[in-house]
UniProtKB/TrEMBL annotation:
<protein>
    <submittedName>
        <fullName>Mitochondrial carrier</fullName>
    </submittedName>
</protein>
<dbReference type="InterPro" id="IPR023395">
    <property type="entry name" value="MCP_dom_sf"/>
</dbReference>
<keyword id="KW-0496">Mitochondrion</keyword>
<keyword id="KW-0999">Mitochondrion inner membrane</keyword>
<feature type="repeat" description="Solcar">
    <location>
        <begin position="195"/>
        <end position="285"/>
    </location>
</feature>
<keyword id="KW-0813">Transport</keyword>
<keyword id="KW-0677">Repeat</keyword>
<keyword id="KW-0812">Transmembrane</keyword>
<dbReference type="InterPro" id="IPR051752">
    <property type="entry name" value="Mito_2-oxodicarb_carrier"/>
</dbReference>
<feature type="repeat" description="Solcar">
    <location>
        <begin position="8"/>
        <end position="92"/>
    </location>
</feature>
<dbReference type="InterPro" id="IPR018108">
    <property type="entry name" value="MCP_transmembrane"/>
</dbReference>
<keyword id="KW-0472">Membrane</keyword>
<dbReference type="Pfam" id="PF00153">
    <property type="entry name" value="Mito_carr"/>
</dbReference>
<dbReference type="InterPro" id="IPR002067">
    <property type="entry name" value="MCP"/>
</dbReference>
<feature type="transmembrane region" description="Helical">
    <location>
        <begin position="12"/>
        <end position="31"/>
    </location>
</feature>
<dbReference type="GO" id="GO:0005743">
    <property type="term" value="C:mitochondrial inner membrane"/>
</dbReference>
<comment type="similarity">
    <text>Belongs to the mitochondrial carrier (TC 2.A.29) family.</text>
</comment>
Length: 295
């Protein structure tokens, strides 16, 4: 009987998540800008290509990369926390359940817990990114956003949208990791390393699509909440997640809850595949570099 591979140390999972996250964001960032613009608009959507053309025509090509610095700085710790938290919660739930290996129910529970953990890390970075991506943004750059928020709203102002971010990440991670487990079990067993990478890309892409499908309404609300600076004595129109979902549904119709879905799914479905592929490839490289008992 072959000896079971020893789990890689935390630093390896951290580094793999960081490398994968940076790779994904550099590839797909313009889609994120278009997604945010579509979500913030209360008017009829121009569609993906119409939004791209409008931004380039009116603001220049460079505007598609405005706000890149905060998510780029965030991607390493965010992705690292996501996969490290998934590893931690997975082992925890396996121990509590007494199961020998992960099943779909534990995968979903693990993904939701990892998403909740991740949300605490990402909020300030997401807030700065949204403020910079807004068409009406007049901020000079990321640090100007931080200075103005802290000056007007205090340090806790950097955590505007915390609750909606929590729900967005909980639903996305639950759908993503739960779907990955299911798809992997349905795919034919890979006999080669290339086959393993292909299976990871397919399951990651399907997981990204499903995660996007269930969490887009929460992402729309998060964008609306974070785009508007708080004014003392004035209750924001969008304040808490579920009341905001009802407001958007009532005023703009159910389709408004899926504004930005196309660029979001075009980014996160293949992005999820790229993410998982790079993570698995990087972890494989670490295993080879560390040698037994990790291989």
């Amino acid at each position: 009987m072959s000896e079971q591979k020893k789990p890689l140390p935390f630093v390896a999972n951290f580094a793999a998540g960081a490398i994968a996250g940076v790779s994904e964001i550099l590839t797909f960032y313009p889609l994120d800008v278009v997604k945010t613009r579509m979500q913030l608009s209360t008017e009829k959507s121009q569609g993906l290509f119409g939004s791209f053309k409008t931004i380039i025509r009116e603001e220049g090509f460079g505007r598609l990369y405005r706000g890149l610095v905060p998510p780029l700085l965030l991607e390493a710790p965010k992705r690292a926390v996501k996969f490290a938290a998934n590893d931690f919660w997975g082992k925890t739930y396996l121990g509590l359940s007494g199961e020998a290996k992960m099943n779909q129910q534990l995968s979903i529970l693990t993904g939701c817990s990892a998403g909740a953990t991740e949300s605490f890390v990402v909020v300030p970075f997401e807030l700065v990114k949204i403020r910079l991506q807004d068409k009406n943004s007049t901020y000079a750059g990321p640090m100007d956003v931080v200075r103005q928020i802290v000056k007007k709203e205090g340090v806790l102002g950097l955590y505007a949208g915390m609750e909606s971010t929590f729900w967005r990440h909980l639903w996305w991670n639950g759908g993503y990791f739960g779907c990955i487990f299911q798809v992997r079990s349905m795919l034919p067993k890979a006999e080669t390393s290339q086959g393993v990478l292909l299976n990871n890309f397919i399951s990651g892409s399907v997981g990204g699509f499903v995660g996007t499908l269930v969490n887009t309404p929460f992402d729309v609300v998060k964008s609306r909440i974070q785009s508007v600076a708080k004014v003392p004595g004035v209750t924001p129109k969008y304040n808490w997640t579920y009341p905001a979902l009802v407001t958007i549904f009532r005023e703009e119709g159910p389709g408004a809850l899926y504004k930005g879905f196309v660029p979001k799914v075009l980014r996160l479905a293949p992005g999820g595949g790229v993410l998982l592929l790079v993570v698995e490839f990087t972890l494989g490289m670490f295993r080879k570099a560390l040698g037994p008992p990790y291989i």
